Amino acid sequence: MAAVSHPEPTATADLPQTNGLSMENGSIDIHDLQTSAAKLSIAENATVDGSTDPVKTPFINLSSASKIPSVPSLTPDQSTKYSKLLTTALSWTTKPASTPNTPAIPITDSDRMWLTRECLLRYLRATKWDTNQAATRLQATLTWRHEYGLESHTPEYISPENATGKQVLLGYDIAGRPCLYLNPGKQNTERSKKQVEHLVFMLERTLDLMPAGQEMLALLINFDKKMGGDRPPLWQGKQVLNILQSHYPERLGRALVINIPWVVWTFFKLINPFIDPATREKLKFDQDLRQFVPPSQLLTTYGGDVNFVYDHEVYWPALNELAAKKRAMMMERWVKAGKKVGESEHYLRGGQEGAVDAVQENGHAS
Prior knowledge:
366 residues; five-stranded mixed sheet; 11 helices; 9 strands
């Protein structure tokens, strides 16, 4: 059956106009997040709390300079392979435990919602459309998400790691990818597994704020002078790379790195053999970041126009409440549409595309 292209995404989020985000007694109304942008618009570069100079909380929507690229249609062969993988995923009732001779773990609603159409397609692309490999990797990620304890890593648990603002989720690049800033010079804790858990937590929050029609994120890393002669241990770098490449395939759209000292160059050379070629091509070093991120949503410390001041007591609850409301909106839409494996992320995020009731066998909206 012929595929029908998705409606072209816009740069406006589905949120109402306020001085910041509509809030009732300090909380964000879930229905505000579902309000159509066609009915209510938001001032460009509005923040959650209405702060402007300095900015203290995340931007609500994309800049008008950001344009989300359209998604190419699947070929007939790709459509067939997607359908095969979807049939396989629909049959799963358990996920394997990583420890031998351990009972399998029941599939949860959270797992089923995670197994979106776009998720299956990401794993197919990552395995060069090998359906068996894609299924194996999907199950491995389901197991990892359970055993790593993603849902137990609460904002309160992670909070001490981000007290200095060493990671900040703010704004969108020119392709509508949410921007996650990493500031190693603001390191405030000893090396431990919790530092990796912190990064994974922030990756998950970045995905929560993904706009409809976009699947990738942008990493911006500033190795300022405070970095000195310190660098992450090799084991930590390898672990982060393994997590990104194994469990977040096709999620990195671009990585922009500036102010790289020689010790970091040395570190990059050490981990370079562990970086897959596709990821390596997305790395950009010491370039003018205004060509990749609209200046109106790029921090001044990265060459942009945004005077951002990190206040943990303001930023941290604002980020996590916004992310929680976005997740609740997606869950509500998923349940309303029938709790299907293979649901459309575009639909779940409030986009114009319908739920999978209107999706053809080849994975495209009818």
